[in-house]
Amino acid sequence: MLLGMAGTLSLGFVLAGCGGNGAQTTENTTETAGDSASAPTEALSGLVKIDGSSTVFPITEAVAEEFQKANTGVRITVGMSGTGGGFKKFGAGETAISNASRPIKDKEAATAKAKDIDFVELPISYDGVSVIVNPKNTWVKCLTVDELKKIWDKGSKITNWKQVRPGFPDKPLKLYGPGTDSGTFDYFTEEVNGEAGRSRADYTASEDDNTLVQGVSKDEGALGYFGFAYYEENADKLKLVEVNSGDGCVLPSQETINTGKYAPLSRPMFIYASTKEIDRPEVNAFLKFYLDNAAELAKSVGYVPLPDSVYVAAKKRFEEKKTGSAYADHAAAKGKTLEQLFAATP
């Protein structure tokens, strides 16, 4: 049984780097003296480099922490340069694993292929994109998808809450959201505005969700969006907004995300493993550990575990080194659940 994440991990963290675009890398180090349950089980050593989505970062970091308890010779770095930024590094052969809050794009897969890099696509959990406001905001309980589009669409001139809906107060509206390298940005803009990347540009953008939390929590007129787990982590500083996609107002929760009731802002999250790296013992062991413990650790950091059948399918893909994306045929994949997609993948 894995230990709880809060207050029980005997781990230290070293901030290894922070880029000007919000990219951040955390290197995990381990202290296991006196803890027989954390004693090394294999003489593994080496470096595992991971980068990508800030949304997937917490679960991957949690897995890395637990893995290193039993494998003190392995050093794992986990970066946060956004899904797109992570795929750039992955496609250049700079990382073994890429965190992603959306499926890999055709052009990203082609870039990796040009460098002779194939990948195994592994779903790890569900997440919802949370729409949030400042706790002092007393006028917003629920927004429709049409209202969100009115606010966030490319060319939008909405700068005051009174422009969003009659009855809303005359207060400046300031927007906070992920940067363009973020998978959350791609997902939100596609589901709300109808096209990935279609968004107004005049908002405070960051690949680091913590920066967005700080911005919204200090601005009474703020509106933002980011992963549900980051809202849960900062619920005392923020107010969650319900979303109405046509069937009534729904709050994101583990239940509504898992069932898809929180539409259209529920989504799966992934890790991508380079086939050039999979046979390295430390990488192989880490990936096995990840898949074996993803459900439990997803819950421990606020994400929603996948159905057991999807984890079984993911383990099979990993063991067989099944390359490519289940989303490569976009028309066939559209509207299908993870169970349908991965069960259909031979």
Biggest sheet descriptor: 13 strands, mixed
Shape, per Cα inertia axes: globular
CATH class of the largest domain: Alpha Beta
Please give the domain count. 2
Category from helices, strands and their pairing: alpha/beta
The number of E-state strands comes to: 13
Tell me the CATH architecture of the largest domain.
3-Layer(aba) Sandwich
Number of helices: 12
What CATH calls the topology of the largest domain is D-Maltodextrin-Binding Protein, domain 2
Question: What does this molecule look like?
Answer:
The protein is globular and about 65 Å long. It starts with 10 loop residues before the first strand and ends with a helix. A hairpin with a 4-residue loop joins strand 11 (239-244) and strand 12. The chain has helices at 57-70, 82-91, 106-114, 145-152, 183-193, 209-217, 228-233, 254-259, 281-300, 308-320, 330-333, 338-343, and strands spanning 11-18, 24-30, 46-52, 74-79, 97-100, 119-133, 142-144, 174-178, 204-206, 222-227, 239-244, 249-250, 266-274. Strands 1, 2, 3, 4, 5, 6, 7, 8, 9, 10, 11, 12 and 13 form a 13-stranded mixed sheet that branches. It has 346 residues and is of the alpha/beta class. It has 2 domains: 11-126 and 269-343, Periplasmic binding protein-like II (D-Maltodextrin-Binding Protein, domain 2, 3-Layer(aba) Sandwich); 128-266, D-Maltodextrin-Binding Protein, domain 2.
